[in-house]
Amino acid sequence: MFFSHRLSGLLRVQSSLLVLWAGLVCAPGPLSAQADALSGPSRSEIDAYIQRVKGRIISSFSGFATARQRGIIRLQLTPQGQLKGAALDQSFGDPECDRSLLAHIRQLAPFEPLPASFSAPDISLTLPYLPDAVIEHYLESVRPSVYARLSALGRMTRTGEVELKISGNGTVRVRTLASFGDPQLDRRAVESIKGLSPLPAIPGAADWETVSTTFSYGPAAPIPLQQPTILPTVRRK
């Protein structure tokens, strides 16, 4: 997943959401059935199954634009892929989005059958998801602070690029991807942006979840921060 933002041609922000883990829990049942299930399909088979189910839901639902935070979807499925239950362990921050998503999931059912070697009576899938809209809104909120730190370094002679890895709790790691033309200036840029840590937490995200973002700053004169012109574009890969 890839996002690109430009601020009056001077600042470009790119972000990619690192992989979010989707959990697997065997539904309540005889202990032997759970053990058989876990010793049946390989973990890679189950992971692939989870990602296909999650991908089908996310790619076909158009209501995430109003989401305000990361949500967690929980599904209970039979081995044949029939839906026994759908709920949200964590809301997406918008009641209408939550209601529409659960209704959409029920309409999508049934899902594909589980691997043939899965023998438990049913399975519970935990599917965390941080929508694009939440990431974009979050980056828009932190962009001015990062831009201010870069512009405070003075006029640049070369366009440089820094990468920020922002954890769910707002902790920031910074490194230079492309030099600003002076090693000392590169170090100052990194240390200055590190001084922002911690940033506000990513809404609803777990501490271990990370958004990776790059900022490019060019040699043109800085624009006034009071009225920045934001030209967002979104690309996917």
Automatic annotation (TrEMBL):
Protein name stated in the entry: TonB family protein
Protein species of origin: Gloeobacter kilaueensis (strain ATCC BAA-2537 / CCAP 1431/1 / ULC 316 / JS1)
